Amino acid sequence: MSPILVGPLAVAGLSTVLAFLIAILDKFLNNYGQLKISINGGKKELVVKGGSPLLGTLAAEGIFVPSACGGRGTCGACKCKVLTDVGPHLPTEMPYMSPKDIEGNVRLACQVKVRKDLEIELPEELFSIKKLKTRVERIKDLTYDIKEVLLSLEGQTIEFEAGQYVQLVVPPYGDIPESAQRAYSMSSRPSDSAHVELLVRLVPGGIATTWVHKFLKEGDSVEIVGPFGEFRIHDTTASMICVAGGSGMAPFKSILNHMKETGAFPEKEIWYFFGARTTKDMFYLDELSALAKAWPRFHFVAALSEPKPEENWKGDVGLITDVLDRYLQGKIDKKKGLEGYLCGSPGMINACINVMKKNGMTEDKIYFDKFA
Q1: Dihedral, 100, 102, 104, 105 alpha carbons, nearest 10
Q2: What CATH code is assigned to 239-370?
């Protein structure tokens, strides 16, 4: 190994060891005892055991703050106001904080340890979030790496808006010693309050996706927490330009079926662009094509970026951003105005936003649900 690299690597290794030792010492040597958390000016008062992150401490008391990453500090979803001085913002928080957030004492609940009595502020709607026990009614392979998981609420019900998500509680399994939570958009219709359907794509090394794809079986008991999220239809007459890929299909399946079933937002024209590499990555084609035939204001555009000759693909070809650009320039009526709805990876979403802005859409009319 180059001598130039030895020094930095040694420092990095030592820093990791020290951080681990500090965490162990903090957990076992510092006894914070019973502490109080006052919520929203005393509307709720909790007496809790100190020492753990605020996110988990609240969850143990039945108050579930959204966290798409399960408390790893990588999604920025668990923002709340901490009015008590708990020290400066951590480097792990700063990427998710605007100057207004910092000035307003907004923190990430997963990064703030409960080491003293706290005063915090939370949105009132979080008090209605529930942890629900479900049973796996059906697991269906949609593609080689995407499963449709139907959960039965076993006598319970859930009320949600099309486009929202739940957090799937993953128990310890295999070499995973602790429970974890990960966020998944619901693909089921709000009218079916007795079920929750999720689309789960296998991510190499993913804690939740590995569990679902390799360990979860029909009949198993599963816990979910929710509903969460602000991704939903906006009540305007503007046409909806929807773009997704892979398991980003989930919220759109819920939204489209809900709109068709209820007749909601009858003046909205709907364009749904779904992109994949080859036909083996495509799913729900028959269902969506049938929906387009039965529903005149709905237009479905499926596109492959790398179709193989033997696949005999008859649909659009190209990156979904290029296909979107072509349709925005020549085929979509813009007289009523346009709104963008996006679900997928950050890279795909950012590229689509650029195309939409290039075609006259303003950023405040583009709504998205990113996942890693």
Answers
A1: 160
A2: 3.40.50.80
